[in-house]
């Protein structure tokens, strides 16, 4: 029996360490080092396990932002215990997720947590593909980004188009008069369209692909989407498509 208990303890330590280290979330913060379980090395052949953040979102209804600080503190045959928050104990919360039915042994852990993750993904409408990278605008995308930025700046001040001001002197009174009339409409329409695109992108692209709203990655994508609109969508979709194709090739 002591040998079996020691083996179970070692197995639990490996599972906890692996989940916290590799499958917490691709872009989330790491737990407070004083609370982390000791780091153990798993064999390279260990199959990947799912992530923890979705567990708290689905099974405990925690928001994505708060769930992102999750890490696994312990598990037994009938439950997982996760902690959210970081810093002093007063700012952290403990969450117990029951395993129904309980496992017969820790050998069932991988199968069980994969099934739980699949259930959570479907319920939360999350993709299997997690985005970890930011692709800045280059090439034609850089041209698009620069052009739209210039238009935003050019139409940000109406007085530039007033009689006797900058634009009239550079481009003539006809263009200046036209732009003076159109400036509120141009700026208003651009702000409305780009804000709408940005909000859609945040909800249905970034969150769907498990990008943490508290991360730098999230706001890099959000900022470029606000400026260039469709260009950011095309790059992001291409990145996701490449990841899905790579995963499909590995599956065959």
From TrEMBL:
Entry keywords, A to Z: Membrane, Transmembrane, Transmembrane helix
Keyword Nucleotidyltransferase: no
Chain spans, region Disordered: 1-41
Domain named DUF2470: residues: 52-116
UniProt keyword Membrane present: yes
Residue intervals passing through the bilayer: 134-155, 175-196
InterPro entries recorded: DUF2470, Haem_oxidase_HugZ-like_sf
Name recorded for this polypeptide: DUF2470 domain-containing protein
Organism: Friedmanniomyces endolithicus
């Amino acid at each position: 029996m002591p040998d079996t208990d020691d083996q179970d303890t070692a197995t639990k330590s490996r599972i906890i360490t692996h989940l916290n280290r590799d499958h917490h979330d691709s872009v989330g913060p790491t737990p407070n080092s004083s609370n982390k379980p000791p780091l153990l090395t798993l064999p390279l052949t260990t199959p990947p396990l799912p992530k923890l953040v979705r567990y708290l979102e689905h099974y405990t209804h925690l928001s994505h932002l708060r769930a992102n600080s999750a890490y696994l503190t312990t598990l037994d045959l009938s439950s997982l215990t996760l902690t959210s928050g970081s810093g002093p104990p007063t700012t952290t919360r403990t969450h117990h997720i029951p395993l129904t039915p309980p496992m017969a042994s820790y050998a069932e852990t991988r199968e069980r947590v994969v099934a739980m993750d699949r259930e959570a993904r479907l319920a939360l409408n999350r993709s299997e593909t997690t985005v970890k990278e930011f692709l800045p605008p280059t090439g034609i995308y850089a041209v698009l980004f620069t052009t739209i930025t210039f238009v935003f700046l050019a139409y940000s001040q109406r007085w530039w188009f007033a009689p006797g001001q900058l634009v009239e002197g550079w481009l003539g009174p006809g263009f200046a008069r036209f732009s003076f009339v159109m400036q509120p409409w141009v700026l208003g329409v651009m702000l409305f369209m780009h804000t709408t695109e940005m909000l859609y992108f945040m909800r249905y692209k970034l969150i769907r692909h498990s990008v943490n709203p508290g991360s730098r990655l999230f706001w890099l994508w959000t900022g470029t989407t606000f400026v260039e609109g469709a260009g950011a969508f095309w790059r992001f979709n291409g990145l996701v498509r490449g990841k899905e194709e790579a995963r499909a090739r590995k599956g065959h």
